[in-house]
Amino acid sequence: MSAVLWTTPSEAQVLELPEGSTWGAATDINDSGDIVGAARSSDGRERAVVWSGEGPRWLAEPLDTVQSYATSINEAGDIAGLVMGPDGHRGAVWRGAAKRGATVVPTLGPLGSDVMAINNRGLSVGALAPPSVDELTPITWVPGRTPKRLASVVAGGAAVARGVNNSGLVVGESDTDQGLQAVAWSEASRGCCPSYQVSLSHRLGL
């Protein structure tokens, strides 16, 4: 499998992989054309990759990393994803890592966290599943702060935040009385520490 960029609906460009890679996948692209994803290195590990003006580049990893994956990139070149270590996985944000020649070790979230997306305000979203806990809890997270847990439609039900726009609207899925459904979390207050309210997405017209 190769990472691909569609330059038109009918034209696909296979992206160059880091030397020695045998597999690749692209997951997101920003308006500057910076692309992120992952590739399998020569030692068999999946590692986070950024494709910028200088071609493919491995993202820096903390010591003892088992694998890493980049899922999202914003216009500032901040990259979100996850890092797997010996003790489990953690959400990760590489600040400004898409800039030419940047070597940035990621800031890691709590154990059991995943980061799915990041917006231009630096707000990341994903889910938290601490060890020994079965349910997924949706979260928003800014590196350096404690993740904020978002509500599910059903109290105690599982939910995952998968996307966030620059206005702070978060989307994902949640357990409901009718099963798993698409939902959106909107900011109920502004300022340093906004709170969120959850609604079924079809009620918001999404």
Structure description:
The chain is mainly beta. The chain folds into 2 domains: 111 residues, no CATH class; 91 residues, no CATH class. The strands form 5 sheets. The protein has a 4-stranded antiparallel sheet, with no helix packed on it. The protein has a 4-stranded antiparallel sheet with strand order 7-8-9-10, with no helix packed on it. A 4-stranded antiparallel sheet has the order 11-12-13-14, with no helix packed on it. A hairpin with a 5-residue loop joins strand 7 and strand 8. The protein is globular and about 50 Å long.
In short:
By secondary structure, the chain is mainly β.
Topology:
Blueprint: E1 4-8, E2 11-14, E3 24-29, E4 35-40, E5 46-52, E6 55-58, E7 67-73, E8 79-85, E9 88-94, E10 107-111, E11 113-118, E12 124-128, E13 137-141, E14 148-149, E15 159-164, E16 170-176, E17 179-187, E18 196-200
Antiparallel strand pairs: 1-2, 3-4, 4-5, 5-6, 7-8, 8-9, 9-10, 11-12, 12-13, 13-14, 15-16, 16-17, 17-18
Query: Which strand order do you get reading across the main beta sheet?
Result: 3-4-5-6
Whole-number total of structural domains = 2
| Number of extended strands | 18
Largest sheet descriptor: 4 strands, antiparallel
**Relative strand content:** over 45%
Structural class: mainly beta
Low-confidence stretches: 188-196, 202-206
The outline comes out as globular
Order of helices and strands: EEEEEEEEEEEEEEEEEE
The helix content, as a percent range, equals under 10%
N-end to C-end Cα span: 33 Å
Q: Tell me the Rg in angstroms.
A: 17 Å
The tally of helices reads 0
